[in-house]
Amino acid sequence: MTTITTRTIEYPADGLTMIGHLALPAGVDRRPAVLLGPEGTGLSDVERRRADALAELGYIALAFDLHGGRYLSDPEEMLARCMPLLSDPDRMRSIGHAALDVLRTEPRTDSDRIAAIGYGTGGAIGLELGRDGADLRAIGTVNATTTGRPGEAARIRCPVWAGVGSEDPIMPPAQRDAFTAEMQAAGVDWRLAVYGGALHAFHHPPVDHPVVPGVGYHPRHAQRAWRDVVDLLAECLPVTEDDLGQSMPSTMRKSRSTPSERATSASW
C-alpha cells in the first residue's frame, strides 16, 4: 500500500454545487485514474473509502457527487430525484462529464488512462458516459444493468463489466437480459457476473435509515465484487512499474503483490 492524500473538490453540475472526494497516491507523477460513482442515495463514506482504497493501489480516484453535497437517507426523496434522472440520459451524461472534466484537469491524472466504476445510479452514469463516446479504458458497474437509447451502445469504446445480485428485484432477469442483448448487439466487449442469492446494493454495508424494498447487504459477495472491480482495472487500466517508479523504492517494487491480493484489505 502507499500513503495517500485526500481533498474535497467543488464543481458545478445539474444546477448544483457538487462536492466530490479526490484521493491521490504519494508522489508527483501522473497516474491512471478512476471515476467512482455512488448509489442513488449519494456520496457517502463508503464511496470515499473506496476511492481511498483505489489510491492505495496507485490510482488517482475521484468519487463524484449526485445531489449537491447531500446524502438522501429518505427513500422517497431519493426516488423522487433519481427516477427522473435515470430516465434522462442527457442529464446523467451532464453529471458524468462534469465529474470527468474535474478528474481530467487534476494535474496528476493521465487523461489517456481513465476508467469509470459505479454503483446503482453512479454505475448508470458511467454507462451513459460510454454510450456518449467518452474515452474510457473500462466501465464497471454494480447493480446498474441499465439500457440506453437504441444504437448508442455502439459508441462504447472499452470493455464493460457488470455485477448484479441474482435476487435483485430492481434489476431483475428481464432487465439483465435487455442489458446484455444491447451490449451484444453493439459489439461491446462485455461481461456479466451474477452473485447468487444477493439483493440490490448487496455491496453496501448496512445503514441506519430506511431503504427501498429489495436492498440487502451480502458481505461475502461484496468482497467478491470488489475484487472483480480491481481485477477489471488491473486488466484494462494497470498501474505499471513505470507509474510506480518515482514513488516506490526498487526493493518494494520487486516484492509488490498482485492487485487482487492488495485489494483484500480494502474489501467490504
Question: Care to describe what's here?
Answer:
- By secondary structure, the chain is an alpha/beta fold.
- The chain is built from 9 helices and 8 strands.
- It has helices at residues 45-56, 75-86, 89-105, 121-131, 173-185, 219-236, 241-244, 250-254, 259-263, and strands spanning 4-13, 16-25, 31-37, 60-63, 109-119, 139-142, 160-165, 190-195.
- Strands 1-2-4-3-5-6-7-8 form an 8-stranded mixed β-sheet, sandwiched between helices.
- The longest helix is centred in the last third of the chain and has 18 residues, at 219-236.
- It is globular, with a radius of gyration of 17 Å.
- Mean pLDDT is 92; it is low at 249-262 and 264-268.
Condensed summary:
The chain is of the alpha/beta class and 268 residues long.
Helix content: 25-40%
Count all strands and give the number: 8
Taken from the alpha-carbon principal axes, the silhouette is: globular
Mean pLDDT: 92
Question: N-to-C SSE series?
Answer: EEEHEHHEHEEHEHHHH
- From the N-terminal CA to the C-terminal CA, the straight-line distance is 17 Å
* Helix/strand/pairing category: alpha/beta
Low-pLDDT runs of 5+ residues are 249-262, 264-268
Q: Specify Rg, calculated over alpha carbons.
A: 17 Å
Largest sheet: number of strands, sense, barrel closure: 8 strands, mixed
Strand content: 15-25%
Spatial strand arrangement across the major sheet: 1-2-4-3-5-6-7-8
User: What count of helical segments does DSSP give?
Assistant: 9
